[in-house]
Write a structure and sequence with these properties.
Elements: H1 4-9, E1 14-21, E2 26-30, E3 35-42, E4 45-49, E5 52-56, E6 60-64, E7 70-74, E8 78-85, E9 98-101, H2 104-113, H3 125-139, E10 142-143, E11 146-148, H4 153-164, H5 172-178, H6 183-194, H7 198-214, H8 220-226, H9 232-243
Antiparallel strand pairs: 1-8, 2-7, 3-6, 3-8, 4-5, 4-7, 5-11, 6-9, 9-10
Helix pairs in contact: 2-3, 5-6, 8-9
Length: 253
């Protein structure tokens, strides 16, 4: 198995590593000198950055540019494929973190890349596979499984407090008080920082927390109440509207 040391010392544009982590594992704040493409073959990851929280279900991939500080939490047992990429020779790769809907071809290429040694020959089949992976990354559509985090420290404090306990029912005035702002200032600045109203942000944050909990096999009704819904039917309706399928079917896609 390739080691993380090889990522630093081997002069190849793309290096692939495979790893597994248990439920509850936390990889604290850090960054990499290369961009990363994280592909979850099994389980669900939550990745925190300074500008947003990303939920990465199975069969999706998260792009993290070089130098971006992030923290990773495993809600369940995880099987990961990670590509470390030197982006210097590619102009069309993403410049921001984003979740990609991996095509069948990209998934197959990533799994094949796990079998390729770090010091592969760049001009043969193995090198061509790595270049084709980059071609595919540039073409992949985005899935918006991210809760944006405001830059303003007062708003960031409010958002962090809510995400620690998404079932809480403070009204808008109480959240504004927590931020030491008037309700009007809070509303205006929150929309400016996140391009969302606080109500919409809170609703989406609850849905992504619910998605993370559902990935571990928790019952829909329990998850609905844990994230602040008064009934499982209301939760199911909102989930279906956001993700196109009911909660019970999401991980079957």
């Amino acid at each position: 198995m390739k080691s993380s040391v090889e990522v630093c010392v081997v002069d190849r544009q793309v290096i692939a590593l495979e790893d597994q982590y248990p439920a509850g594992f936390v990889d604290d704040w850090h960054y990499h000198s290369r961009a990363q493409l994280i592909y979850t073959a099994k389980g669900l990851l939550t990745v925190f950055t300074e500008t947003g929280t990303f939920v990465l279900p199975p069969q999706r991939a998260l792009w993290i540019p070089a130098g971006i500080r992030h923290m990773v939490r495993c809600r369940s047992d995880i099987s990961l494929c990670v590509l470390y990429i030197n982006t210097a020779e590619r102009r069309n790769l993403p410049e921001q973190c984003r979740i990609l809907i991996a095509s069948d071809l990209l998934r197959a290429l990533i799994l094949q890349a796990m079998k390729i040694p770090a010091a592969y020959e760049v001009t043969n089949r193995e090198g061509h596979i790595m270049q084709l992976i980059l071609d595919e990354i540039e073409q992949m559509p985005i899935e918006h499984l991210v809760v944006p985090m405001p830059n303003d420290s007062r708003l960031h404090h409010v958002c962090s407090a809510f995400m620690q306990e998404p079932s809480q029912e403070k009204n808008l005035t109480e959240w504004a008080d927590l931020a030491c702002m008037s309700r009007r200032t809070f509303t205006r600045l929150f929309r400016k920082e996140t391009n969302m109203s606080f109500s919409s942000w809170r609703q989406y944050a609850r849905l992504l927390e619910a998605l993370s909990r559902l990935s571990t096999g928790e019952q829909v009704t329990k998850v609905a109440f844990d994230v602040g819904y008064n009934s499982s039917s209301a939760f199911t309706s909102m989930f279906h509207r956001a993700f196109g399928v009911p909660p019970s079917k999401y991980f079957e896609r």
